[in-house]
TetR family transcriptional regulator
Amino acid sequence: MMKVMFLRKSKTNLIFQAAIDVFSEKGFDKATMDDIAARANVAKGTIYYHFKSKEELFLFLVEEGVEMLREGVESKLTEDLTPREKIELILREQISFFGQYRDFCVILLRESWGAEDRQLEFRKMIRSYMALIEKVVQEGKDAGVFHDVSAENAGSALFGMAAIAALHILLGKGDYDEDKLFSDLKQIALSGLLK
C-alpha cells in the first residue's frame, strides 16, 4: 500500500514539475495537457486522474506554491524578533523564494491575472500569506514603531513590491542579485525614498 501511495506522490510530483515548466515557457493559454504529459513522461490520462482540467492543475500549482512561501516565512518568524526585523525577514524570504523558484514566480505573477475566476481563486490563496504580513504590520502599529497605516494596504504593498520587482528581473533575464534587491526594498519599505 505504501508503494502505491509513493508512486502516486511521485507521479504527482512529476506532473507538478512538468506543469511548472510548461506553464512558465508557454503561458497558461498556449500550454496543453498533452504538453504537460509529454514533459512528465506520463500518459495524459494519468494527469486527468489527478486533475480534472488544466485550470484545476494551474490552481493546484498556485496553491501549493503560495503555501510553501507562507510556511517558509511563518516558520522563521519568532516572537523575539521586533516588528521591523519581521518585515525584513518577510522581504528577504520572499525574494529568496522567488529566486529559488523562478519558474513558479513567473507563473504566479504573470498568469494569475488571467480569467476572472482565476483571479478570484488567486486572491483567496494569497490571502493567508497577506494575513501574515498584515499581522506583523499591526504588531508594529500597536507597538508604536510603524506609522498608523492600513495593515491590509501595507501587506499588499509589501507583497506586491517584492513580487513585481522580482518578476521584472526574472522576465528581463537579468542577474537576480537577492542581496541588492533586498537592500533596495528594505530601504524603500522601512525608510522611504526621501533622504
Summary: Residues 32 and 55 are 11 Å apart (CA to CA). The domain at 55-190 is CATH 1.10.357.10 (Tetracycline Repressor; domain 2).
